[in-house]
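> run fold branched-chain-amino-acid transaminase
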Amino acid sequence: MSDKLAIKVTKAAHSKLPNVDFENLPFGKTFSDHMLIGTYADGAWKDFEIVPFGDISLSPAISALHYGQTFFEGLKAYRHDDGKISVFRPDKNAKRFNISAERMCMPTLPEEMFIESIAKLVDIDRDWVPSKEGYTMYIRPFMFATDPYLGVAPSTTYKFMVLVCPTGAYFSKNLNVKIETEYTRSAEGGFGYAKAAGNYAGSLFPGKKASEKGFDQILWTDAKTHEYVEEMGAANAMFVINGKLVTPSTRDTILDGVTRDSIITLAKSWGMEVEERRVAVAEVLEAIENGTCTDAFGAGTAATIASVAEMYHNGKTYVLPDPSKSEFANKMRKALDDIKYGRVEDTRGWNYMI
Ligand code: PLP
Ligand code: COI
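> ok
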């Protein structure tokens, strides 16, 4: 960690840490003592500050609230067995942050400012990084438009903020997934590849309908035909078919996941064949039926590797082999954790030490 960016720090008078039950940390509900906030105005980023976590005051007319000019990132910090703390591949999130910014017509943030902001906040709240196996500190950077103007136009002022929360697993069980044939998450020419808030807002209603029918997640399909796999909930969809790792190639409807990239890199390093291409729903279902699909999972920062137990499509349920016995997903989970928790040498420079 370097200290190039001037960040003013105002410490919280009292830490909430003694009141936190580290044995019980549902995802995204417990926030640390501090948060970071920076301002974009007059064409420049300025006034980066770490302040006590708390409410902020904003005009009710800000365009983020009315037109959704806002997006976010998600990454995690890990406590190694020797107490050191690292953040996993923040350079990838910094790049994707700016891809989202550009698509949402918002200012980019120099990558080193993104990384320094996160590093400083995690360092100040380093006692909040859990040490229990399977627990991490989730880091949520986000940007939103703050012009108090009701015209539909790009804002000229913005806030960049970072929150951190100690957290347990996002999913507690293997997933029962509905292959979506009515709604879509994103369409060609849209902004599915950006981590824009609107992508998630639009997924809530189909998600609620699926949940009411007993499904845990939606496997999103392409907007035009619903015949090709896109993503799995808020994670990338990946399969092992005939011993090959198969995943939809990224394009404008799909978020280019850091977990997906890490899994592809490791699988290739093991000599496994990897196919990034269009993946037909029919191909996956046939492979489940004839036993050649041995793994299906969602890959994401919050989701980690979330294995699928069952898939439902047009009135029929397809049962995957028992995920607890999956050779690939279990080996990959361990390989990724070994790197993130510093249990093996980090040969690719994926751990950013705090
Ligand atoms: N796809 C969507 C829509 C997501 O929200 C996420 C989560 O961030 C991912 C994929 C996985 O991306 P990553 O592995 O970078 O977290
Ligand atoms: C993440 O994995 O960081 C995500 O963005 C998922 C989130 C929407 C809970």
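Residues 197-212 form the longest helix (16 residues).
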